[in-house]
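Hi Q.,

Before the meeting this afternoon, I wanted you to have the zinc ion prediction in hand. No need to reply - just skim if you have a minute. The sequence and ligand are here:
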Amino acid sequence: MKSLRPLLVTLFAGISISSAQSLKPRLIVGLVVDQMRWEYLYKFNSRFGPDGFKRLMDSGFNCNNTHLNFYPSHDGPGYASIFTGTVPSIHGIPANSWYDKNIRSEVYCVEDETVRNIGSDRFAGSSPRRLEVNTIGDELRLFTNHQSKVFAISLMDRAAVLSAGHSGNAYWLDGGSGNFISSTFYLARLPSWVEAFNSRQYVDSICKAGWDLLYPRSTYIYSNDGGSLYKGTPFGKTALSFPYDLSSFASVRRNVFSYTPFGNTILIDFATKLISNEKLGSGDTPDLLTIAFSSTDYIGHAFNPNSIELEDTYLRLDKEIGSFLRHLDELYGKDGYLVFLTSDHGVANNFGYLKDMNINSGEVKMNEIILNTEKYLKSTFGDLNWIRTFNYPMIHLNDSSIITTGIDRKAITEQIKKNIEQYDGVLKVLDLTSISDELLEASLKTKTINGIFSKLSGDMIIILKPNYYETFSRTGTTHGSLFSYDTHIPLLWYGCGIKSQKDYSEINITDIAPTISAILNIPEPNGSTGHIIKDLLININKK
Ligand SMILES: [Zn+2]
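Predicted structure with the ligand bound:
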């Protein structure tokens, strides 16, 4: 990136000093660190340098009490909620994939048969058509009569697409080719600068270089080293710890690249090129760029939050963010840009790791439970298909069996509840037609209701106990629950006249977009139900 600076400084040489120091940002940068728990800011704090996370924490507005306000806590609904300022019951993205009862088929949140990807034909095209409402980027484009530019980039299509919204542009990495791609929803062809970036074959060169620890092994005191029973092996069964030799994957299995911290490096590099080539921040209206760092999610899933791989990833990301912020300083001046850093969800500890500490936890084999429940229903109500499909955590009943037999629907849902709730790890099974009558702690009930998009939802939803999750593996981990380890996320605001302040008021992920609206004096996204973080606005306006 260093070698680019002279070129970029030249590109922006025409920007006047007075406009660069304006308190209205020239560029808004969203840094979404996928699967980042709030606690990582503090767990690794003593190892962070002064320029990355610490700069945002110590010199910015730090919302320490920010949570997801919906269930389940997955990528699709997470990104959609950050950028639309509302919950799945309004924005229409209740999961990454779900069973669509209208077409009786499973669908993926950004799949779109009416478009095709450009740069790769491995998968169906991606677009935000299933997102029912506007994003903050859409509102910015509307307000400025299309003058503001909106871009979102990620390793994952869903992260880029749902962040960019309907009128922005999105690029994501195709794991097979190692190239950044987009879809015909956005563009007819890739710009020449993207093609030039891809021609560098960065992914292959990283695979050839491999992954070793950034610092001496003995300094990684906040995580566990190799040999753990609970670490996955995405680089092959014999690759158990550092240094990871990835050379055999170059040109062959490039998608392992996502499981390295260099997935963050390539995004920062691509963002820098994008800023330069698309001339972000050089117009009369603010532009918006979102970088959704996906490697943190891949690494967390595969290795688990207590692994040395995760710690090394955050220490490296800290340096990358520091370098990127210095680059923004050079381009726009310290108050010429606004950064917000957050996450789409947190993550659970590995259940076996917790068990070793005598902490109550466990795996839940939901498919077996559903099969047993279906057997029970057949023996009780007759040999018909009673559960049409199960797409965790949602149960869809087979309406035709209920209509054919005339059996009271409530009698069936009561038996399903009774049957499933007897299994270890299951907290509650809720009937969505009578959810207000269910006995459940109020905030958990609200999160559940917020997560249900009624046009798509099933009939019943399962809630597991804290530290229990559905899994097919004893290694790694996952997320998706409505408890704090999955819902408590960082939220840092920096630049644009913001002064150092620690905040502990209750903030929801859906408050981010309306707060950006307030800073920019533009309308909130059309479905927004979030609230403006007033103390941040007061902070900005303090002399
Ligand atoms: Zn995620």
